[in-house]
């Protein structure tokens, strides 16, 4: 018995495979966050600047003035932008009229032309049939039948041509699709023109007091220069530095969880209120400010804080621990899963990343068991035992 036990101990890895920790996929909610550190600012200060280069046409506020959210602070000259907006709006109206013509004129006319071509084809077909009978009876010569055949061929060609014309002006036809695409394009141009015009008006992001004004009418401004500093009323803000590689994920209004380093575990809610239009070249970061609607009593000026900004959320999605993904940064990520007791390579399509897990769009199912990318090396096709299955945490 002792000999059998010893043999079983040494032969088990050969027969059943090595024992390796593995991960199982999990279905649930996945949250992507951007993590940063910074400090408390109270009262908050918001740097006001321009997103575009332009000449200042008006500065209707003064330093020390209390302003309302949305109130105009600086207006840039925008005659070109206004003209571009009017031109884009005219192009949209023209494209809408052209598309409407398909429904009101082009399609009905094409349908009528098709009906007429069909009637003509039927008449010519009947004439051809009569001519063929007369030739068979010897009443007319074959030359007249040849003329009838040519007329029939022409009628068929005209019917096919009109049929194609009708198909092209229907909603799935090429001409209609081109007109529809043209309308979408000019609408996009209109939105872009409106956005450029909006950049000419710099407004207050919140109620507050202007504690600095460094701009006058006639000045030429450019992105990155602080023109005013606004101190919102009654707001506590967090000033954090975000790595510029994460700038594409950030938007105004995003929610976040923060905690002071002096009070770990006591998290409080915050919201992105300002994203600096300029990049700090020395640090390679962007200054971001978050407002705290209900600040805890322990928050103090310049206190160090850590912030997790929620930039995306997926509900009821499939995710896997990032430690199981191989070549994750490449165009062809893959995993080694356990299938019928053997290691099998499987290509996967990745989606949104979380903090500890990443969304799996295709390639795996919820019951799959996947080997870690590091640790015990298991070659494809080798037997393996996933004795311990770790379920990744799909939440942040």
Automatic annotation (TrEMBL):
SUPFAM superfamilies: HlyD-like secretion proteins. GO terms for molecular function: transmembrane transporter activity. Pfam families: Beta-barrel_RND_2, BSH_RND. Residues 78-196 form a coiled coil. Keywords: Coiled coil, Periplasm, Signal. It comes from the Bacteria. GO terms for cellular component: membrane; periplasmic space. Gene3D superfamilies: 2.40.30.170, 2.40.420.20, 2.40.50.100, Helix hairpin bin. Transmembrane segments: none annotated. It is found in: Periplasm. Belongs to the membrane fusion protein (MFP) (TC 8.A.1) family. This is Efflux RND transporter periplasmic adaptor subunit. It comes from Undibacterium piscinae. The lineage of its organism: Bacteria, Pseudomonadati, Pseudomonadota, Betaproteobacteria, Burkholderiales.
